[in-house]
Design brief:
The chain is an alpha/beta fold. Helix content is 34%, strand content 21%.
Length: 221
C-alpha cells in the first residue's frame, strides 16, 4: 500500500487491487490523417505526453500491476456505430471513411492501432470500445471483477472526452479512480485544466489526481 499525496487528499494505492487504464493512445487521435484531425483538431499537442505515459506504463509493469489498454473503434460494417455518432457535425472525414491511415476508427485498420511507443505486451488486455466510455458495450466490468480490481489509475486521451467519460462510469460503479494529470492531454488546454478541477472538486466527487512520478513512487512502495 503506497499513500499518494494526491489532490484533493491522500489516495491509498493498493497494488493488489489496482490497474492502470490507458485510454485510446491510438494513431487516429495522435497522428495527422486520423479521426482527431478530421474533427478539425491540431493533433500535435497529444504526442507530447507519450514519454510520460510510457513511464507510467513501465512503473505498472515493473510492479506487476495490470495494464489495460482501450481503443475507440467500430466494426467494419459500422453496426456498432450509431448514426447519431457518425453523422454528428461536419468533419473532414467520417468514421468508416477512407483516410491516410486506412478507414477512420475501424477495428483492424492501421490508424486504430495504439502508437508503437506504447504498444501493449502480448499478455496485456486491450478493450475495443464503440463509445467514449470504456464500460459501455464492452467486457471491462467482467475483466475487472475477474482480476479483483477496485482501484483504477487513468492515463490517455482525450482528457475531457474518453478519459473523463470512463472515469465517471467507473466512479458510478464503485471504483476509486485517480487520473495521472501529466499522462493525459486534450486538444484544448482549457478543457484539460477544467476537467482536472471538476474531477477532484467537492471532495473528489469523481476522483483524485496526482502526477506520474507520485504514482510510480507509490507503486515502488
Ligand atoms: N474528440 C475527442 O476529443 N476525443 C474522442 O473523440 N475520443 C477520445 O477521447 N478517445
Amino acid at each position: 500500500m503506497g499513500v499518494i499525496n494526491a489532490k484533493p487528499f491522500d489516495f491509498a494505492l493498493d497494488p493488489a487491487k489496482a490497474a492502470l487504464i490507458v485510454i485510446d493512445m491510438q494513431r487516429d487521435f495522435i497522428e495527422p490523417g486520423g479521426f482527431g484531425e478530421s474533427l478539425g483538431n491540431d493533433v500535435a499537442r497529444l504526442g507530447a505526453i507519450v514519454p510520460t505515459v510510457g513511464r507510467l506504463i513501465a512503473g505498472f509493469r515493473e510492479a506487476r500491476v495490470p495494464v489495460i489498454h482501450t481503443k475507440e473503434c467500430h466494426r467494419p460494417d459500422l453496426s456498432d456505430c450509431p448514426p447519431a455518432k457518425r453523422e454528428r457535425g461536419n468533419p473532414g472525414a467520417r468514421i468508416g471513411d477512407a483516410g491516410a491511415m486506412g478507414r477512420i476508427l475501424i477495428a483492424g485498420e492501421p490508424g486504430t492501432e495504439i502508437i508503437d511507443e506504447l504498444a501493449p505486451t502480448a499478455t496485456e488486455i486491450v478493450i475495443e470500445k464503440p463509445g467514449k466510455g470504456a464500460f459501455y458495450a464492452t467486457e471491462l466490468t467482467e475483466v475487472l471483477e475477474r482480476l479483483g480490481i477496485t482501484q483504477l489509475v487513468f492515463a490517455g486521451v482525450t482528457t475531457e472526452v474518453c478519459v473523463q467519460t470512463t472515469m465517471r462510469e467507473a466512479n458510478d460503479r464503485g471504483y476509486e479512480v485517480l487520473l495521472a494529470e501529466d499522462a493525459t492531454e486534450s486538444y484544448f488546454p482549457q478543457f484539460k485544466a477544467a476537467t482536472l478541477e471538476m474531477i477532484r472538486a467537492q471532495g473528489a466527487i469523481v476522483g483524485w489526481t496526482a502526477t506520474t512520478d507520485q504514482v510510480v513512487e507509490a507503486l515502488r512502495g
